[in-house]
Amino acid sequence: MTKTNLADALVHGARPGGPVGKQVNWPVELGSTVVFSTLEEFETAKEARFENGTPYYGRYGNDATFSLERLLAELDGAHGATLTSSGVSAITSTLLALARPGDHLLVADNLYGNTRAFCDGLLVSMNVDIEPFDPMESIGEKIRPSTCAVMAEAPGSGTFEVCDLPEIVRQANEIGVPVVFDNTWGSPVFCNPLNLGADVVVYSGSKHLCGHSDAMLGVIAATEKYHSRIRRTVMSLGDKPGAQEVFLALRGLRTLKMRMEHQNKAGIDMASWLSDLPEVDRVLHPAFDSCPGHENWKRDFSGAAGLFSIIFKPCPEANFRAFVDALTCFGIGVSWGGYESLVLPMTSERSRNLGQGPLLRFNIGFDDLETLKADVTQALEFLQG
Ligand SMILES: *Cc1c(COP(=O)(O)O)cnc(C)c1O
């Protein structure tokens, strides 16, 4: 989708239709039972219950969820989109739809923590063979006839390297293996994984799409080949988004492009300011050419979220903790993509190889950047002890 079309779709898409004199927005569309006047109408709706567009019973969706799904499918160039109750449920339902006992699943070693925990827990107990791979290296050798999918994400959780998605797709699709891509960071504004060849794209809608830290939501957008299998799995698991969350996502999408554009600029500004501090060893941000996969980011993304990490030079742990505690504009919290600024200390196998000092992830919100810089500056005194 071109930039202008994207802006228009976000403003005009998924609005209530109907007769003259209608509200701009959907109401919070609550409901379980849907009634029909004739048995024939009921049977037709039942037949079509897994598809977008025919109300049958609340668990399968209503007019507001169908509209939101159609808009999301349009943004991603997908055959269809399915909403779930959280980003994690979007990922777990997708993997459950694709993996069968005895299958082999390739998972990038920089995935969101809960994605990996689900694979190592429930999928292993279902006798799925989980094999991690380094997303910055070729996966060609690792793909087997029993491989059911490749699960990747960019940039990597906490470490921010950007894999070569088209190359992963090329190697996987060569023998018909689907690629599932978590695009929560880029959002449909900055990256279109399906256009790059991915088969399924998943999002935590709790981050940028809703955008105000007040809702939990997940999205799965897929090509025709995979859409209905995954949608049926979501519905047979009984997962569904709440009505209020759907309302909040529809509202959040109206300003998504503006918010992403601001976060792109603010994140790069803060990251470059931080990278010049004597206490900072390195910044992990895809827009910086020191970031592994920077070239992939330049080719495949048109901007960056306000989420990145820095690695401090080695310092006593107590000083690092005192620094984090001294920040007043940055809350300590998981999640991100809202209006508020956040920090989160993170460590992983991958991050331990990147630097010796502590790693701190930043989410840059909509605060004044000078205020944020002044806050970091005053807290740095605690880092020095
Ligand atoms: C937050 C997050 C998720 C999980 O989403 P929830 O809505 O919190 O369940 C999945 N992937 C990424 C990259 C995330 O940041």
Could you outline the blueprint of secondary structure elements for this entry?
Layout: H1 3-12, H2 39-47, H3 63-76, E1 80-84, H4 87-98, E2 104-108, H5 113-125, E3 129-133, E4 147-153, H6 165-173, E5 179-182, H7 187-190, E6 200-204, E7 218-222, H8 224-237, H9 243-254, H10 256-275, E8 280-284, H11 294-300, E9 307-312, H12 317-326, E10 331-332, E11 342-345, H13 349-352, E12 359-363, H14 369-384
Parallel strand pairs: 2-3, 2-4, 4-5, 5-6, 10-11
Antiparallel strand pairs: 1-7, 6-7, 8-9, 9-12, 11-12
Helix pairs in contact: 4-5, 4-8, 12-14
Pyridoxal-5'-phosphate (PLP) is lined by residues 86-88, 112, 153, 182, 184, 204, 206-207, 216, 218, 335.
Whole-number mean pLDDT: 96
Give the CATH H-level superfamily of the largest domain.
Type I PLP-dependent aspartate aminotransferase-like (Major domain)
CATH architecture label name of the largest domain: 3-Layer(aba) Sandwich
Largest sheet: 7 strands, mixed
- Helix-strand sequence: HHHEHEHEEHEHEEHHHEHEHEEHEH
Give the helix proportion (percent range). Answer: 40-55%
Query: How far is it from the N-terminal to the C-terminal residue, by CA?
Result: 51 Å
Instruction: For the largest sheet, list the strands in their spatial order.
Output: 1-7-6-5-4-2-3
Low-confidence blocks of residues: none
Sheet-strand content, in percent, reads: 15-25%
How many distinct folded domains? 2
- Label the overall shape: globular
- What Rg is obtained from the alpha carbons, in whole angstroms? 22 Å
Small-molecule binders here are: pyridoxal-5'-phosphate
CATH class of the largest domain: Alpha Beta
Which fold name corresponds to the CATH topology of the largest domain? Aspartate Aminotransferase, domain 2
What structural class results from the helix and strand content?
A: alpha/beta
- Figure out the total of helices: 14
